[in-house]
Amino acid sequence: MSRGFGAAGFGGGPGHGKLKFDDDELHSKISKQLLLRISKYFLPYWKQTLLVMIVLCVSAVLGLLPPILIQHIIDQALPDKNLHLLLLLVLASLGATVVSGLLGVLQNYLNSFISQNIVHDMKNQMYSHLQQMPLQFYSSVKQGEVITRMTSDISGIQGVFSNTIVNFASNLFILATTAVTLFIMNWKLTLLGIFVIPLFILPTRKMGNFSWKLAKKTQEKFSEQNEVIEETLSISGYLLMKLFTKEEAEYSNFKTINAEATNLQIRQSMAGRWFMMVLSTFTSIGPLLIYLYGGYLFIQGELTVGTIITFVALLGRLYGPVLQMTNLYVDIKRSAALFERIFDYFDMDPQIVDSPLALHINASGKDIEFRDVNFAYQQDKPALRHISFTAAAGTLTALVGPSGAGKTTITNLIPRLYELDSGAITIGGKDIRDFTLDSLRSQIGLVTQDTYLFNGTIKENLLYANPEASEAEIMDACRSAYIHEFIMELPEGYDTVVGNRGIKLSGGEKQRISIARVLLKNPPIIIMDEATSSLDTVSEYYIQQAMHVLLLNKTSLVIAHRLSTIMAADTILVVKAGAIVEEGTHDSLLKNDGVYRDLYNKQFEPKILS
Ligand code: ADP
Questions:
Q1: Which of the four, 174, 207, 590, 606, has the lowest number of CB atoms within 10 Å?
Q2: What is the whole-number distance in angstroms between the Cα of residue 589 and the centre of ligand 1?
Q3: What's residue 125's pLDDT?
Q4: What is the domain-level CATH number for residue 434?
Q5: What number does the ligand 1 atom closest to the CA of 409 have?
């Protein structure tokens, strides 16, 4: 069985999460496929892109004018003492420079327009893609990593669009126009000037690979750093760190990673600089050769001074782009790594999607049936085996059993948070895979143990379930969930901010708010995981009352931890090691003298006595 992204799947593979540096990857080329894929992002902005190309082309030609005009100043205006021509040539040169500058501004605007828009599109694409990823993705990928991809990787890509690609095109135009001009002026001198070019190009390949490796390592370190921040400076992580007095250890861990990341960055910037220094030395050889051979031709009377000076100036326009492009080669390799990381995310299959003929479901009054359901999170480690049962419409089914038995897994399969491996789950006799995910999930209300409230007001949290709910409806739901009085006693009532993840509320209060939230949604199926944490008698009473309202006339599956719930259940399923080992009512199961009786003796009886 392949899930595409098991815990191991995210750990390896080129571009996945933790990056491996195998030789194949380092020597891999920037493939046509990758280029094609990148170029598709330009499609919506093809007009602007075309305009940028025209601007670059015109700028490249305009850039040739000043050196050529200087040749005419030296060879014509000065020897002829022609002031009028001198003035004309100087003004023309100035004009070319001003127009070039103006075109530069236009090009900058277009660049940032295109690159920002492409990044905007990519961010949207990434966000909506990540939304489609199943729960399994989030349980296996480290949190910091998603943030890194969404922020620094995508920002890196903005640089590629605004600088790398444009620089590449600009240099290519300058190179082409200059080379043609030089050949027209004097092909022998041009060949001499070109002679030194291989000196810069040859070491570039090695440098490219080295730099790519460093870039990937740096990205990996940043990702690691983000993970540490996420894990230790979030509420639960912070609590864990404080309670186990791990500040020193965590700080030292952070310092090590931070030092490594800094070191890598310094190495990365220095690697580029050393490389440039060596290359610049080579570029000074070209002009010297021109002065030598050109000077000889001048002495022979074959060349003018103006031509030599213009030639050397134009040679700068030839070497500049070659140097920049060799450096760009490094950038392009680096960018390819970034794109690979992003595209790897885009390529991950959301897996749980609507079937082509998916129908809308209305689950009211319909039975839920598990038919020989098997499921495994990881290959060869079945979490559920041959699960078959029916939760009749309008009844309460309680799931009991030791921790890790598979109760949560059973309930998570109903809204298709995970996809079963074999067997079927039906609602009203129809397979849940034949329904649209949206309609299926709209029929289910989930009350989890760890209620997630976002950092907003209580009202905002409640409206999340039903944005159209009126004030009266919200209050009604809260009354039914036995939380209205409590909310009203808060300083700002329904407008009280609950804090990160609802930290300002107790477990019982949060669960009652979560019940109110589901009441506002009012779905026909309720899945509830009762809080295991011990509640005081008052909270316990309120929760029970709230649950009573919540489950009334609903088809419900409750992972039960309280005797009162179990006693109220129409059917009890005893789950052990991924299988249903017993099924019945409280009384019938007690008589059985099996797993349930044992569980009851250990978990519930002492509580009754105490
Ligand atoms: P229960 O709700 O009965 O305590 P669960 O359904 O949460 O049990 O877990 C059943 C088994 O599946 C356990 O062995 C647990 O470790 C494993 N499991 C749960 N969630 C995941 C997951 N996202 N990835 C891999 N294994 C998991």
A1: 606
A2: 25
A3: 92
A4: 3.40.50.300
A5: 6
